Automatic annotation (TrEMBL):
Belongs to the LysR transcriptional regulatory family. The keyword Transcription applies. GO terms for cellular component: cytosol. One of its GO terms (molecular function) is DNA-binding transcription factor activity. SUPFAM superfamilies: Periplasmic binding protein-like II, Winged helix' DNA-binding domain. This is Transcriptional regulator, LysR family. Transmembrane segments: none annotated. It comes from Pseudogulbenkiania subflava DSM 22618. Keywords: DNA-binding, Transcription, Transcription regulation. Residues 1-60 form the HTH lysR-type domain.
Length: 320
């Protein structure tokens, strides 16, 4: 493309100035180099563009006919080059990401704020969806990448480990579980459970752990959103198994939590990409910003209610 631009630019300069010498001076190339460029353009087009002798250079009829078209081609090519440079240098563009609601409510806003400060002209589009939907959007290339959990092996995607999220039991502050700082799954299922819907990464982990432990439960309610599950807990309808990061997605005043000490109840969250697909420079850079933001301790995050979140199992902090 660059060579094509140089050749067309040389043709237009000679046509406008009527001189190889003046055109070469304007373009800061030697006259022999300019002559080669014009000859190569004529050979590629298979036409003669100039009639020349020792005294003058004039456009042929074909050259006059092609002049407006080649001028437009140069304008279009320069526009393409400028746009591609803007994209490569992160001066424009967009990033689309599908992510688990807990990440969307906690880590993602901080990362977007950092990214927007450095790249104000790049838009970030977020779809907060369950794990299964995240995979669908990535595989359909409707988003650049996803942040979620791989529920089953899938050859169409690549997952790079990003975060770990311990599953915890959430309960009213005056609940008997408040006296068991290190509960196991068997302790938790002694009470009616409020679980997330099937197809979510959390529900998949819980169901697998229940099957492995051969445990039966009393299912009080299912909820699509963690904020709903926490509200049902507050209403006294049961206890809920949710990721530690749920404290970002829900108002947890009056709620206690404790990490469940049963193996297999840690949710692995990764960066999910379509296999053998390249990301735009903007998407690659946004992933770097996400990783940088993830290094900030969870205790430095605050919920919408203004409360500081503790990463340790125990009582969920109240707003200050």
């Amino acid at each position: 493309m660059l060579q094509g631009i140089r050749h067309i630019r040389a043709f237009l300069a000679v046509a406008r100035l009527g001189s190889f010498t003046r055109a070469a001076s304007e373009l800061h190339v030697s006259q022999p180099a300019l002559t080669v460029q014009i000859r190569q353009l004529e050979e590629s087009l298979r036409v003669r563009l100039f009639d020349r002798n020792k005294r003058q250079v004039v456009l042929t009829q074909v050259g006059r006919d092609l002049l407006p078209s080649l001028a437009q081609v140069l304008t279009d090519l320069e526009s393409v080059m400028s746009a591609s440079q803007d994209l490569a240098n992160l001066r424009r563009g967009s990033v689309s990401v599908a992510t688990l609601p807990s990440v969307a409510a906690g880590l993602l806003p901080m990362a977007i704020r950092r990214f927007a400060a450095d790249y104000p002209d790049i838009a970030v589009h977020v779809s907060d969806v369950v794990a299964e939907r995240t995979l669908q959007l990535v595989k359909a290339e409707e988003v650049d990448f996803g942040i979620g959990s791989r529920l089953v092996p899938d050859r169409d995607i690549e997952v790079v480990d990003f975060l770990s999220d311990q599953l915890c039991v959430f309960f009213p502050e005056d609940h008997p579980l408040a006296k068991r700082p290190l509960p196991v799954l068997r302790d938790v299922i002694a009470y009616p459970l409020i679980l997330t819907a099937r197809g979510t990464s959390v529900r998949t982990l819980v169901d697998r752990a229940l099957e492995k432990e051969d445990l039966e439960i009393t299912l009080a309610c299912e909820a699509n959103y963690m904020s709903t599950a926490v509200s049902l807990v507050r209403a006294g309808l049961g206890v809920s198994i949710l990721p530690e990061s749920a404290v970002h997605a829900a108002a947890c005043e009056g709620i206690g939590m404790a990490a469940i000490q049963t193996a297999g109840l840690t949710r692995k969250i990764g960066i999910i990409r379509k296999r053998d697909r390249s990301l735009s420079p903007a998407a690659e850079r946004f992933i770097e910003v996400l990783k940088e933001a993830a290094k900030v301790p969870v205790a430095h995050f605050t919920t919408a209610a203004g409360e500081e979140v503790s990463p340790r199992p125990g009582r969920v902090p109240k707003p200050t």
